[in-house]
Fold:
Amino acid sequence: MSVSVCPNELLLSKLSRSCADGPKAIQDEQSFARAAGIKTIVRKPLAYNNDNKGTKLSHRGVQLSKELHSKFSHSTPGSALPKKMRYKDFRGYLAAVGRPGEMAEVTSNVESWRLFFDDLGGLDKEGDLTAAGMVKYRAMIEEEHGLEMDLLKLEMELLPEDLMSWSRNKSCFDRIDGEGVEQENIKLERRIGKKRAEKECKPGPVGKLEARSFQQLLGDCGEYYTNEQIQNFMLINQAFLDVMAQLRARNARKNEFADDIQASKIDSDDKGSLFRDGFLSWMVSDRPKPSLHPFERAFVAAKTNLVRSMREFCRGIGEYRKALEKLCLREILTPRLLGGLKMDLSRYEGKIVIGNPEEVDEGMSATLTYTKIERAAQEFATMKLPKGTGTAIVLDTLVRSDASRVEIQMAVNKMEEVLKEHLEHDLQKLPLFHSWKVFCHKSDVEDTTVIRLALCFDRTASIDYALRELDMGFSFSDLLTELSVDVRCSLNVVDLLDSKRVNLDKDFHLFVNPKVGFARGLLVKILDELLLLAEEEKKLAETISAEVAANQAEYDARTAESHPQQPEYGRIRIGIDAKTETKTGQQLETLQMRAEIKRRNMWRVVNLLRGTKGLEWETSFRGLVDCLFGSKLVASFMPDWLAPAYFKQQGSATVTWRKWCGNVLGYMTGMLSDITNHQEMLKMEAARKAAAEAEKLGGMSELQRRREQLAKDKKVLAHKLESLGIKMDPKLLLQEKKTQTPAQKRNAWKTTQTKSQLAVLQLYSALQQCCVGFSGASVVSGTNKFQLDLQGFDLFEVSPELDGEDLESIISQVGSSQISLC
Structure:
């Protein structure tokens, strides 16, 4: 199947208008689909059968129609019955694809709709549209409104799930591979200089990752496993690679005189790396997929998603900075041009009130403020952050007033231990990362003690440094003149989650007051130029692509004249684009649509800022039920189990929270039981080895024992003398190779996993004993500070509590040692 990108004019015209009914719209859809080259996927007719008589859809088209039915269908909560599409669901489907007026005489009311689809043969006994009925409906309108067009509008995939999964996995691998290569190039440039590094830097992904990134790679692909399970995967995969290497070596010996022997890209001897081809084959294979406990899966997912979000945020900031550098080099953004726009200010203020705003003083509160500090170095020193810090992200946990120094230091040590093993490796890969630190900090102003976690980036990562380097003639405080968000609630965490007298609809009162002031003219000018730069680059790429296509057509025409019997003779490609080589036509169409929608939304925001000098608005609701269910649009996003009665019943939030805490406590108790059982198994194994050793020594004579001990002492002494530079007999330096069986390796991985789980439980127990809850967070970048102050978020007061005696007994059995990845 040949695929190609549709003409840009068709795409823009398609996105610029709504999909109204009529011959012109139908003709545009058909031409759009033909240009995309995807009609044959869903248009190949099926043979006549009992289920789909005379349908114009292929097998894949039938499958896609059923997927479309499932997307807009609903299932009854707690029922195992299949999903059903009701009348409102069908109307929602028509609105989503841009044809709300289709078959108006049929869809005007539910009775006519049911009569029509009953005649079509697609309703069940309850009068709902079935998946088979959706297939018949799609086959009926296929000539007028192609199925592939509806799928493109809904951003659904046209290709089989296996192929799409393979493509997504490859993109995830290349992304992590490219991030690693980029960091290696940066380190190489710092070490040998920019000019020499240009010759030795790697141009892009190399198709190989370090094995330690396997968990993050699987997390990006949507699968979450512990380190024990991942090590098991790699053991099986290594055995497969060893067998394949032996087969390739045998075939190479048989065909050693052949010219078409291609070397494998996978090196089975490199056991510390993960290769792209082997990973993609493994992902689509019939491999075992072990299950995880929901809480353990949530922990691994939170870790991988946190790392991915940090990397994507740094990448986005880097792209915007490069775009601003281009504009400054072209002198489109200059201090002379931007200096006069700093006085064009705007101010936006709003209020959201739920319930009575006069009863919101004694509960939870959150305040976000932006301030301009005088000296950044002095502020970092006051916060006890290391020298050379340009940007810092700080998280504070409030310590109890009666907590001892030993308890606080225990919590700090456990947090350092867990973070060092789980996140330090990934934090070091972030651009411009400096260091991280966990310590106890006492504020002289508020007389409170907190456990502080700080992530520090170097001086070149600060906002002030970037603006000075760009030389745009303004500071960040000129752009953002004011920012404050005040959120106050009538209930604190303890009242909300630990009191059965609370009625959420009556007792929950909320007041939100955001204020923001900025240089409107300055911000609009910068955003305007960034969007125009993106459009310039897009037009440039289209021009280059058109020139390449024209050159290729001219080359093909000349080849056809000289070789009429072989029109493909000597065919070459000019300027191969990696995107067109790795993505299908439908994927490119979807990406173009998303980019076009994003571009239009950005222009709408810029035009709104350009035409709005200021804004002040206020919204109020009588209660929480009125806020969530007063509007049908907002109520449609609520889950089925969340009904208005839930908010009107006393203690509903407490019952839900205690049920969840019971599940968490049961999971932690089960984890402690598994750790205890594993320790007992290790003790039995050690006792068995000791008995075997004693039995072996018991069968020796006294002379044989002395000789064996003397041989051991000689080897130890030989290694010590060799380290001092004294040459020794090589026979004395030989050591026995200790090889582990797969069972022993799995046992070692299980031991490492239990130590990891125990370390996390120790951290949780230590924080619960000495901490109250989260007290705030702050981001300091140069002389700009964003401060978030929290009050009433005493989560550790209502969290489930572990049995300290059981935990201490297990700790004494396991002992202290280095943990490994969870």
The longest strand covers residues 389-399. The chain has a mean pLDDT of 81. Residues 164-254+266-299 form one domain.
